[in-house]
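Protocol step 4 of 6: structure prediction from sequence.
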Amino acid sequence: MAEVTHAGAAKVKHRGFITLSVMLATIMQALDTTIANVALPHMQGAMGATQDQISWVLTSYIVSAAISMPLTGFIAARIGRKKLFIWSVIGFTLASILCGAAQSLEQIVLFRLLQGVFGASLVPLSQSILLDSYPTEQHGSAMAMWGVGVMVGPILGPSLGGWLTEYYNWRWVFYINVPFGLMAWMGIAAFVQETPIDRQRKFDVFGFTLLAIAIGGLQLFLDRGESQNWFDAMEIVIEAAVAALAMYMFLVHTMTAKHPFLEPQMFKDRNFVIGLLFVFLIGVILLATMALLPPFLQSLMGYPVIDVGLLLTPRGFGTMAGMMLVGKLASKVDVRYLIVAGLILMIFSLWEMTLFSVDVSKWEIIHTGIVQGFGMGLVFVPLSTLTFSTLPAQYRNEATALYSLLRNIGSSIGISAVTTFLSHRLQINHQVFSEYIQPFSRPLQEAVSRGALSLDSVTGLANVNAQVSFQASVLGYLQDFRMMMFLCVLMLVMIVLLRKPPERRISAS
């Protein structure tokens, strides 16, 4: 018989309303991870801030959400999952209103910090509620619906944010959360059932403090490393050292404490541990690609921001299509085969992107985006299902929070890695290409003879250098795409580590 936890929440007649309510909260939070990015230049002008100062609008949200996310399991056990979800939705919605109404840089950074604190629990709680609301044989379909919000939100965020900023005002990237928040709050209050409260559970203050310091230090290191030239700045050295030391102490404490912050028994489940590693790598691929394509299309190909958003939007539709297909097939086939198919599609798409040039057509950009999004949809949902397929239900609140945290950290590391790699390769490529700028280069001689280039003036030499830098940048982006392709190949090899979920009879419920 299928396992159903908290049977009251799993009544068939309420499942549709429960799913809609928690999905609204998931979409609201997922959109906010990227929707504000495109509005930063407008905020910078309105607040009179520098480039470094305005970046704290993103940093404050990322760091506060990362630190708060591990608290989800403990708070849900102490006050009840429904109550925590409601207060998180209300707090996130109010913080969004305050962000939209902010009149100074200090205010918007503070309100973004509050947004991160309240929004941290929304995605893991929604996943936990859906897993408990559906019988085990329907977990694939449930995770497909949940995955649509988690995956499509960050993809559509820049497009929606650019449109709102262009035609309305940057404040609307925050006000857009209000209708989502109101509908989610009413649905959760009406249909989601409360969970048992464990008042005996002890809070590991020392363990949480160490984890919070480690996560906060890591996020600051990743978010500010590129702008501060990494280890050339003492700030980055300190952040890296603090994060590493705190994480080491947390791991030692977890293995030796009587009541640790995270239950070590969770990590005895093989699928759960491998799933965490997988979702970390998926996080790297998901937002790293989205961080590379907009500047490639804008800076090198000259597309306006609105067109960039339109070209990237089909990627989200590809993801939705992949997840819908998984929802229908998850109960009929071994979901590991779906992950393999999805990874192969992602590898193929990234290989096509390594062949891009500045003359690439719009159709090629849309085509590769749809294929990659479809592959991501085939991977993400079965991975969520497999990760929790053998994990005892009492660990779900903590486990889903850790799952979301690893995905977010992977995204942060991915963005920092591809940005740094791009900068590094640009310098190397420029040096290599410059070696061909010498009097005996036949292509250079032909360009000079046609009048396309000139080596007899400062302006002509500056033009040659600009051409070299341009081509070095193009190749740098292609090398980044190739690096992510190899990462997908690594995940394809790792699939053998995932075990098939246990067979279960379909319940009449």
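Step 5 (inspection) to follow. The radius of gyration is 24 Å.
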